[in-house]
Each structure stands twice: as structure tokens, then as C-alpha cells.
Design brief:
Helices cover about 35% and strands about 20% of the residues. Helix 8 packs antiparallel against helix 11, helix 11 packs parallel to helix 14 and helix 13 packs across helix 15. It is of the alpha/beta class. It has 15 helices and 21 strands.
Length: about 475
């Protein structure tokens, strides 16, 4: 684990790599003028030769010469930088800084709010790699990340950033794990050791049946590995709010009898990204000690085409007694979420948020980097949108018009699990709305940003851990009143 520590003034520090910020048109940020001056006039010529101007995303690494640092990285921030830009810059730096034991920086001295938190989290997330199954892993050599001239305030902010980054890392690890290694029983075992102060309750097959979780039972019917439902309870003293988080936990999705194509299954180990986000967020909220009660619910199962699998045309009865006609077994996420949301609503939280890799339609609408947000409550929607913006996770509110409810009308049940071809993400959200009773509710469809096909800044290829930072930021907003 990388240790984040305070260091001396830049002129008195030492280490394998010094990183300093540079703004657009080669305008020096904190420490950059000193570093360039100490290195000598040749640096400007070198920058010209590699076309380094300080644009966002640029990094120029040069030998440290006579400095006490082996190398110096000049990190471009562009014209105007916010906390997300700083987080991305730190992530870009982290991907380059893998061969040194110590990285010292002044990036946290950039004059914006939450600079130290953004730099710490961006660097740690940029260092992430999933090498568990490589025969010759190449771990990063970095052991220390030194914040030069940092005081107690900056260190506390960096600690906050590192806790949230650990939550994101947990989510990434769970998503990236091969499906054979994370059956529901194993996911439940991992939950038991999540964080100090978190109470965990696991529903096995018998308890799932007793609790009338018909959606979860229906999806799990074709799988050999038994389903589980995990409930996390974080209950601090004198909480200022009660937040419920529900995450879709399809640990592998074959599509069931409505079978996916082989190519369509290649990324389906990531169909539990919503549950992973809940795991990571609950862990971070507990470690931060936020004064908000949190109920986390993750229905966990595989969606497989076994001989006992649910069939198109079957009717399920969910936890709240409402019935769903299953016309496409590959629209399974909304079925398990129906039970999870109904359980959450019974506890009467101040806000329910569900997170799910739910629809390809949302990706068609918003692309691979933006999550869709649906809500039955404008105030709650604004709260979560603002939290996502602070956290650096992009969300866009989608409509939930009442006259679209007819698109999921069934001839034989209260609703069906598919709608018309158009507005597929809305159809799915319409079904979920049937299970939240009168509670304020926000649905996050993260089918796009939950996984990345390419690496950039602090984002890695594979599971991204999207949603963890937003959920933590929501809890912080509720804690602040």
C-alpha cells in the first residue's frame, strides 16, 4: 500500500521523482519555476522540442541533474483547472511513475478547493492494476507519495481521498474478478469482512424464499450456484440522515434462455458493477465515520440457461406483491432490483439510490462515459447530480414521463419486463419505480461508465468503480445537512 506523507519545502526534499504543475502557455504552477530554474536553460529548449505547452494531459519528464530528485515531471493542467482536472493530472502522473519508490509533488498546492484530496485519490487510482492472474506481474515500485510543504489540513484531505480511492479499488477488484471466482456465496463471504462498524446480514436460498424475493428467485432459477442477498447496515450514533443503496449483482449474465451472443457475454463478469459500487461506498462511508445511517442491499446471482431457468412468458411475484411478466430473460437486472428496492422502501429511508449496469439503451443515449440518472423527486435528483459533479463522475438526468408507463403494461400481470424498442432505459426505470413506494428515489444506469475499453488518466481498462465516489459524496452532503 502506498503511504501518503507530508514532506519539506521543495528545495529541501528528495526522491525518485518530483512532479510540479504547469498551466497553459507554460505558465508555472507551484514549484515549477524553482524546478525549471534549478535545472537550467536547456529545459525550455527541451519543452520546445517535445511541444510541451502545459496543456491538460501533457507530461514532460526530464532527468533531475544536480537536484536531489532523480527525475522531474512537469504536469500540464491547461487553462483552467478544477478538482477533476487535478485528479486526472495526478492519475496521468501515476501511470508514468511506476519505477521509482518515492514521488514528491506540489500538485496539491494548486489554489482550488479539495486539491489535496483530488491529487491523492487521482494518484492512487492511476496506480491501480489488476495483476492477480498474471504469471509475471509487474507491480508498481512506488511506496511513498510525498506532499511537499503539506500541513495537517492537506494531510487530512489526502487521507479522505485515499479512503475513497480504496473503496473504488475494492469495487474495481470485484468487477475485474473472473466470474468463476466470485459466485454469490463468495461475494457474501467478502461482504462479511468489509469494514469495521458495518453489520452484515446474508440471505441464503431458504431466507430468500421466506422473504418472498420472487424476482431474485426467478433470475437464479437456471443457475447451479445458489443466489444470495447481502444487507449492509452502517449505523453511527446520532445520524443526520438515512440513506439506502441498492446495487445490481448479476455476477455473470448469459442472458438466460434469451441467450446473448458469445461476443455479448465477454464483458458480463462486470454485470455486478452496481453491487460492487455499493460494497465500495459502504466501506468508504464507514471508514470516514460519516454521521449517516446506510443500508446497502445487493441481490447476487448468475443469470444462466439451466434446465430449471425461467422462461419467456413466466410471471414472477416480487417482494411487494406486484407481478412481472418475463418476456425477455436477458432483462434480468430490473427483476432482482425490484426485490432490493422493495426491501429498502420498507425501511423508510430518506433517500434510496440504486446503481446498475442496466441497459444498453442508456449507452446509446449517453455514450460510454456518462451515467443516466432517473428520479421520482427533483430535490433528490439535484442532490445526486451535484454529488456526482463534486466527485468527478458525470451523470445526466433522463426523463421519466408518466405517459410512458403504458409501455410496460402486460396482458397477464401488473407489468412486463420489456417495453417498446424505443426508450429502453426509460422502460427499465419505469419498472423500478413500481417498487420504491413513496420514498425519494434515484436510479443510476451505469452500463457505460462502469467499464472502460481503454485506459486514460486515473481510469484503467476494465472495471472502473464508477459510482463509489458519487455515493460517498451523497452521504457527505446528507451529513452536512
Amino acid at each position: 500500500m502506498i503511504e501518503i506523507v507530508a514532506g519539506p519545502h521543495i528545495a529541501d526534499g528528495e526522491g525518485g521523482l518530483l512532479a510540479v504543475p504547469v498551466f497553459a502557455d507554460r505558465t508555472w504552477g507551484p514549484g515549477a519555476e524553482w524546478a525549471a530554474g534549478e535545472l537550467g536553460e536547456w529545459v525550455e529548449g527541451h519543452f520546445d522540442s517535445v511541444d510541451f505547452t502545459g496543456k491538460s494531459g501533457q507530461v514532460a519528464v526530464v532527468p533531475g541533474g544536480s537536484l536531489a530528485y532523480s527525475q522531474v515531471a512537469f504536469v500540464g493542467l491547461g487553462d483552467e483547472v478544477d478538482s477533476e482536472g487535478l485528479r486526472q493530472a495526478a492519475g496521468t502522473l501515476a501511470k508514468l511513475a511506476t519505477m521509482v519508490e518515492s514521488v514528491a509533488t506540489t500538485l496539491h498546492q494548486v489554489d482550488i478547493d479539495d486539491a489535496a484530496e483530488a491529487v491523492a485519490s487521482g494518484f492512487l487510482l492511476g496506480q491501480y492494476r489488476f495483476d492477480k492472474y498474471r504469471s509475471e506481474p509487474k507491480p508498481s515500485a512506488v511506496e511513498r507519495f510525498v506532499l511537499l510543504d503539506a500541513g495537517d489540513v492537506e494531510l487530512e484531505a489526502a487521507r479522505h481521498g485515499s479512503i475513497v480511492a480504496r473503496g473504488v479499488t475494492l469495487a474495481r477488484d470485484l468487477v475485474n474478478e473472473p466470474p468463476v471466482s466470485k459466485p454469490p456465496v463468495e461475494m457474501a463471504r467478502i461482504a462479511a469482512d468489509l469494514a469495521e462498524g458495518v453489520r452484515v446480514e446474508v440471505f441464503d436460498e431458504e431466507r430468500i424464499a421466506e422473504e418472498r424475493l420472487g424476482g431474485l428467485m426467478g433470475v437464479a432459477a437456471g443457475a447451479t450456484n445458489p443466489a444470495r442477498l447481502v444487507q449492509f447496515w452502517y449505523e453511527p450514533e446520532q445520524p443526520k440522515a438515512f440513506l439506502a443503496l441498492v446495487g445490481k449483482g448479476i455476477v455473470f449474465d448469459s442472458g438466460g434462455l434469451s441467450l446473448k451472443t458469445p461476443a455479448g457475454m465477454e464483458t458480463m463478469k462486470t454485470d455486478m458493477s452496481g453491487a460492487a459500487a455499493v460494497y465500495g461506498a459502504v466501506q468508504a462511508i464507514a471508514e470516514l465515520g460519516l454521521p449517516v445511517s446506510v443500508l446497502g442491499i445487493t441481490p447476487l446471482t448468475e443469470n444462466m440457461p439451466g434446465g430449471s431457468a425461467q422462461r419467456p412468458g413466466d410471471v414472477l411475484t416480487a417482494r411487494n406483491g406486484k407481478t412481472i411478466e418475463v418476456l425477455n430473460t436477458d432483462a434480468e437486472g430490473r427483476l432482482v432490483l425490484a426485490d432490493g428496492l422493495a426491501l429498502a422502501a420498507e425501511q423508510e429511508p430518506d433517500l434510496i439510490i440504486d446503481v446498475a449496469t442496466l441497459t444498453g439503451a442508456c449507452m446509446v443515449a449517453l455514450g460510454p462515459k456518462i451515467g443516466g440518472l432517473f428520479s421520482n423527486d427533483d430535490e433528490s435528483a439535484e442532490l445526486v447530480l451535484a454529488a456526482g459533479k463534486r466527485a468527478g463522475e458525470r451523470l445526466w438526468r433522463m426523463p421519466l414521463p408518466d405517459d410512458y408507463r403504458k409501455h410496460i403494461d402486460s396482458d397477464v400481470a401488473d407489468m412486463k419486463n420489456t417495453g417498446i424498442r424505443w426508450g429502453g432505459a426509460i422502460n427499465a426505470a419505469m419498472l423500478l419505480k413500481e417498487f420504491v413506494a413513496d420514498r425519494p428515489w434515484v436510479h443510476l444506469d451505469i452500463a457505460g461508465p462502469a467499464r472502460a475499453s481503454d485506459a486514460e488518466h486515473y481510469v484503467v481498462k476494465g472495471g472502473t468503480g464508477f459510482g463509489v465516489r458519487t455515493l460517498v459524496a451523497v452521504a457527505e452532503a446528507l451529513a452536512a445537512g
